[in-house]
Input
Amino acid sequence: MSTRPKTRPETWVPAGAETTGAHRATEAEPQAGVRTPHIPLPPPQVISRASRVGRVRASATNVLWAALAAGVPWLWFLVRDLGPVSQVVALALPALVAAAFVGLAISALDERKLSSIIVACSVAVFAWVTILGPRSASPASPPVDPTRLASITLDGSDPNVDATLGSLARQRADLAVVVEPTKKARIALLKADRHPYTLTSGRFVVMSSIPIHELSLPDGLPPALVIRFRVDRPAGGFIMYAVRSGASPLDAALNDPIGVEALRDAASKERLPVVLAGDLGIGDRSTQYRALTEAFRDAMRSGDRAASTSAVFPWSFLLLRTGFVLTSPDWCSGATSTFDVPDAQIVGLGAAVGPCRR
Output
């Protein structure tokens, strides 16, 4: 007869479990001479509160930096009138804004950060204000008994006279100003034209169905770049300044060959209404343009958005408008348009100008 083991049940260990238990005991016991630090853990609610505060601070910091970055483009309004360098930057604004917006759009799509989206929206609004604002439509009453003007600027080479005359004929202009024709082209224009009144002066040819008389220039204006004449229309005469810059937009921005402020001051002193027309070389984002529109109305913005006038690269890429028709504040314009001219670096301008309807 077998006998039960004398080991008590509470101390009995199944076979094979002694080694496992001993190993666990060894792992649980710290090594001799090594002191294990005891670091108390904070309660769970303290950990969650600290993490929320950290996330809020990080978000607030990101929003603050985004707001500061979004305000950087608007500093342009503090420096845009500080000299020739700022005028060159004004020329390049569309390219600079496009590069910045593309970079921010890629960053916003890639990282999906709110800060990138905020800055991209600010750049888009800045582009709208600085690039599209100076050519946005300006409300004005229609002119009374208007005179139809057309202004074209050639590039100084022999043009296709038939095509140029065709472009002018389609405008049905009472007064047409052609700038920069060669001697050969000038002779051909005058022979082929059917206007009863003509005026030639330097690089200018004026063809009119209304009597016109050339006048002397005020002091300070370059006679090679500006002519002044009176238009004796039956409803009341006006003074017209036909202008050409004779330079690229970059040269005009750096050197101001016409002397735009002198032109503005001279034209502002006229007793009769004034019309300025031609290629001034300056852009509508420039200091000179703002100086002119302080005293004159931009006729090409009457009732509709003005279009870019530069027809050659890279100026066409920069959305430049260097051709203008400007009138005295009490004169308005209507039926404004641009039209293509063969062998021209800027498009032709057309507008019907006259006293504002009251």
Summary: The domain at 139-355 is CATH 3.60.10.10 (Deoxyribonuclease I; Chain A). The first helix runs from residue 17 to 28. The chain has two domains: 55-134, 139-355. The two ends are 134 Å apart (CA to CA).
